[in-house]
Design a protein that fits this description.
Elements lengths: L17 E3 L2 E3 L8 E3 L2 E3 L3 E3 L4 E3 L49 H5 L10 H6 L4 E3 L3 E8 L6 E6 L5 E5 L18 E7 L9 E8 L7 E5 L2 E6 L2 E6 L9 E6 L11 E6 L5 E5 L32 E6 L7 E7 L5 E3 L5 E5 L8 E5 L4 E2 L22 H4 L13 E4 L3 E7 L11 E6 L4 E5 L1 E4 L2 E4 L2 E6 L6 E6 L5 E5 L21 E7 L14 H8 L4 H14 L4 H8 L4 H11 L6 H9 L4 H13 L5 H7 L5 H10 L8 H10 L6 H10 L4 H12 L6 H9 L5 H10 L5 H11 L6 H15 L1
Parallel strand pairs: 20-24
Antiparallel strand pairs: 1-6, 2-5, 3-4, 7-31, 8-34, 9-10, 10-11, 11-12, 13-14, 14-15, 15-16, 17-18, 18-19, 19-20, 21-22, 22-23, 23-25, 26-27, 27-28, 28-31, 29-30, 32-33, 33-34
Helix pairs in contact: 4-5, 6-7, 7-9, 8-9, 9-11, 10-11, 11-13, 12-14, 16-17, 16-18
Length: 757
């Protein structure tokens, strides 16, 4: 921009006062550098779809120059060839500048989607896909059968259940409600076996599920997540339509917002797992009373101790709610594997390249906001991280669980654990995650690393079509995976390009090995042996039906379960163990067998089962306290949380002595385990370590402790001339987390006295 006196200023130096759509500062999709044709730009704005920016200009200007184009780094269609050689079907953009706020008619103007609509267009889009070696992608369903799918589930019969978001964000956008009858839960079915859905059934439709973000199919019931409510719909007569509607939870904030309550999933322990984003705030019972967790705390983001988004677990009837982790920004979905380990991804504040994949360490704080003050991640604090992606999650603060993997910029959505055998081995027993921002479906193979994990990514499915927006992934009974595609020019969070129901798009794709036709799997549940076939299924809805029936059979199912328990497949063993330990009178027998098992994942599962069944875990921790596997000891530490037995402090101290000074996962597990017994546990460790505390591992224990007496040790470390500046800053930050007490005050006075001498 040029002023009358000739001085110039760049728009890229200003912060927009109005933004609609996804806007990236000085970067484009995937955190790449802005590049138009042959020119690279260090400053500017990138967007993944329709976007409106408004600026309050600092003074009068007489001329405005703007360069806009399709980013060559973001879209493979873009080329450096002259315009005459650009393909006719290459992406096009429309750019308009206003000197005043545009009228409502312009904001309501839909994009031309007529060339993108219908079966032929959907089938043509298959040529734009890139799929992992050995796999193939096919179209299962498209508009008009399905529009704007936000989430999906697949039932034991192979039918695909989809939440539609036609009215997504309708209360915030000028175009308003597009389908007055309300959004739908639609069941899609391939009745002739040709791989393409030919039957759609509206399970439920109504304004009360506008912008629903989750569906979980449990037999003849479907749990639908739609802030402010979580509904349970029941099909009582088997015709594929809901006959009964009940409220499981209500009072969740984030209405018509993508940071509201998300999908539920059934776990191997017979419980439900779900999460919600930072707009949800709290969750209430059907009568409007607050949900109180199993520890007597209100489940609300009010800092006591919970903040922002949460991952939760409860019984199928909604009772016994537990908060497994908190202080997330917007985790879209959670999944749980056969051993009971919970995984999810979390979106960052847009533009900070801090999207993350997480292992959910139970009771953990995951660091989006300051634990103590609730301040945002950008507010200055002691020992603040230098790099924004780490600063974003408070990774330098004691009491924050580390991230499994940072994946840069993006908009992560649905996730699943693939515990099937159909896909190639590299994808088996791993997370599969959708990212609508980067237009990728990826697997994240995880490897053990100390008490935690490390992971890498492998692309499964991507597309050069800028409208491919994967929103969810689910596993079918035959082991193939299905991917829901919101199909829009943007990620859908705050805008959408197709604003007319008549031409609104949405796709469901099937990914399977090349040449692998759809296999119809039919489960029966009349005998224990038949139920075991379903319990082995890669499909979660089939496992739910099997688990429920086997649990009802009790000891009559024991023989069939023992067959898998004595097998070689560790995940099938873990599933069987969960049920065997719940046979009345048999819990100690099978938990004891789990603790004696050679597989550390089985030992971990055994300890989790003991806690779930409210058994006295102290003798079990005593058996495992010197286990050679750090993950088993991690679970031992967590199991000691709030433990008041006489042996607990000594056991915790023994676990703490095995910390190597490098494993942050193990350290955070120790901190979680000491909650409620900080001083007692710390004193037991001091007694055991004596004057040998000043080691890398000892200083770590002191840094993480919240015990009043740890303040004196922090002061000694800070005043030691050998202490590095980095560690000194780290210890000063640790003081913030020790509650006000005489020991803390005395330690700070001593530090001040030393500093003035």
């Amino acid at each position: 921009m040029i002023r009358a006196d000739g001085t110039e200023i760049s728009l890229a130096e200003l912060t927009p006062s109005v933004v609609r759509g996804e806007l990236l500062k000085d970067t484009t999709v995937g955190g790449k550098t802005l590049k138009i044709l042959r020119t690279t730009y260090k400053r500017g704005f990138g967007t993944t779809g329709p976007c409106l920016m408004g600026f309050q200009l600092p003074g009068p200007f007489v001329r405005l120059y703007i360069k806009a184009g399709i980013d060559i780094a973001a879209d493979p269609h873009t080329t450096t060839k002259p315009q005459s050689e650009v393909p006719a079907d290459a992406p096009k953009i429309e750019f308009v500048a206003f000197t005043a706020k545009p009228d409502v008619a312009f904001l309501k103007k839909p994009f031309d989607t007529t060339q993108r609509y219908g079966l032929a267009a959907a089938q043509a889009s298959l040529r734009d896909f890139k799929v992992a070696d050995g796999l193939d992608v096919s179209l299962f369903a498209c508009e008009p059968m399905v529009r704007n799918p936000t989430d999906m589930d697949i039932d034991a019969r192979g039918r695909v259940w989809v939440c539609e978001g036609v009215n997504y964000r309708s209360t915030f956008q000028p175009w308003g409600v597009l389908r007055p009858a309300g959004d739908r839960i639609v069941i899609l079915e391939d009745t002739d076996g040709n791989g393409l859905a030919d039957k759609e059934t509206t399970f439920y439709q109504g304004p009360d599920i506008n912008s629903a973000l989750g569906v979980c199919v449990l037999g003849n019931k479907a749990i639908v997540s739609c802030s402010p409510n979580v509904f349970v719909f029941t099909d009582t007569d088997g015709d594929g339509t809901a006959d009964k509607k009940e409220v499981l939870f209500r009072g969740v904030s984030g209405v018509d917002h993508d940071h509201g309550v998300h999908a539920f999933t059934f776990g191997p322990d017979g419980k439900l797992y779900f999460n919600f984003g930072n707009e949800s705030k709290q969750i209430k019972r059907p009568d409007g009373s607050p949900v109180i967790d199993t520890e007597g705390r209100e489940v609300a983001a009010i800092g006591k101790p919970f903040r922002n988004g949460m991952v939760l677990r409860c019984n199928v009837d909604g009772s016994e709610v537990e908060v497994l982790g908190y202080n997330f920004r917007n985790p879209y979905e959670a999944c749980v594997d056969a051993f009971g380990t919970v995984w999810q991804s979390d979106n960052d504040d847009d533009g900070n390249r801090a999207v993350r994949v997480e292992y959910i360490m139970e009771h953990g704080n995951f660091g989006f906001y300051d634990e103590l003050t609730g301040a945002g991640w950008g507010q200055k604090r002691s020992n603040m991280e230098e790099e924004t992606p780490l600063r974003h999650w408070h990774q330098n603060d004691p009491g924050v669980v580390p991230n499994l993997l940072l994946t840069g910029a993006g908009a992560p959505t649905g996730i699943a654990i693939y515990e099937g055998k159909l896909l190639p081995k590299q994808f088996q027993n791993q997370m599969i995650l959708c990212d609508a921002g980067t237009r990728l479906v990826r697997s994240y193979p995880v490897q053990d690393e100390g008490a935690g994990y490390k992971a890498k990514s492998i692309d499964i499915l991507s597309s050069s079509d800028a409208w491919f927006r994967p929103s969810d992934v689910s596993v079918a009974p035959d082991g193939s995976i299905y991917v829901a595609d919101w199909n829009d020019a943007g990620v859908g969070g705050h805008n959408m390009a197709d604003r007319e129901v008549a031409t609104m798009t949405g796709r469901i794709y099937r990914v399977s090995p090349k040449g692998q036709k759809l296999v119809r799997v039919k489960y029966e549940f009349n005998t224990a042996s038949q139920c075991m076939d379903a319990l082995r299924s890669p499909n979660n809805s089939a496992r739910y039906l099997a688990w429920t029936k086997l649990h009802e059979m009790k000891d009559k199912a024991e023989k069939a379960l023992v067959k898998d328990w004595r097998g070689k497949d560790q995940r099938l063993r873990a599933r069987a163990l969960q049920l065997l330990a719940r046979i009345p009178g048999k819990q100690e027998k099978y938990v004891d067998q789990a603790f004696a098992d050679s597989n550390p994942n089985i030992r971990v599962a055994g300890l989790r089962i003991a806690r779930s069944l409210k058994m006295d875990v102290t003798p079990y921790v005593e058996k495992l306290v010197a286990d050679s596997n750090a993950q088993v000891r991690r679970e031992c530490a967590i199991a000691l949380r709030h433990n008041e037995s006489e042996r607990a402090a000594e056991l915790w101290a023994r676990l703490a002595l095995q910390h190597d000074g490098r494993d942050r996962w193990y350290l955070e597990a120790l901190g979680i385990g000491a909650d409620g017994n900080q001083e007692k546990f710390f004193a037991a460790w001091v007694k055991k370590t004596g004057d040998q505390w000043n080691t890398a591992s000892g200083r770590d224990i002191i840094w993480r402790s919240r015990a009043p007496s740890s303040a004196m040790y922090l002061a000694l470390i800070i005043s030691d001339a050998k202490t590095s500046d980095v560690e000194r800053a780290r210890c000063f930050r640790a003081f913030d987390f020790i509650p006000a007490c005489d020991q803390k005050q005395q330690a700070l006075v001593q530090l001040l006295a030393r500093a003035t001498n």
